[in-house]
Amino acid sequence: MRDLPLDEYRKKSQKSLISEQERSNSQLIYEALFAQLLSNGYGNINLQQLSKLTGISRTTLYRRWSSIDALIVDAIADKIQDEIAIPTDLEPVESLKVMLQQLAEFLQSPLGRAFLQAALAIKDEVTERKREALWQVRYQQIRQAFVRLLPTGKAHHDIDAIVKMTLGSIYFQIFIQNQQVDDAYIESILNHSMTLIQSK
Length: 200
What we know:
mainly alpha, 2 domains, elongated, Arc Repressor Mutant, subunit A
């Protein structure tokens, strides 16, 4: 590998430091946002308030996020990545089971409920499109986990309906029925989904 000229090396090092600082700032801001969502609710948070709490200038915050809604969408994406993983090193059924357990646990947590309320309250058109794009990417990842249950080379024309039914069952149980979703419930709906997948 060739040696970098000194100026180029300095530029690369500086970019790396800036990038690391941005990641650190983002995590600090996300944690402050989570705390405020839990204590004050979506309607009582703004970027100016988060600037005071974190010591990060408003200019820096507004350079990164145009609104509190834009920040919330990024924070949700980051949290989902951490809290609701889709393991690829497990058997397909076990991978899906782990993901559904994590999803249920997150949705039943105070922060998960606060996030969902905030996400549904977003009115800004640009941020709303960003939120929809996030959901779509996440949905495709979950869909792929279901596709892995199919025999090799076999398609299933109802796979989207099965994915939505499985996820919808969890949301319905938590937010409409106001009932806990435990491992037994996850096992039950997953078995039902498997039966539907294998019936075609």
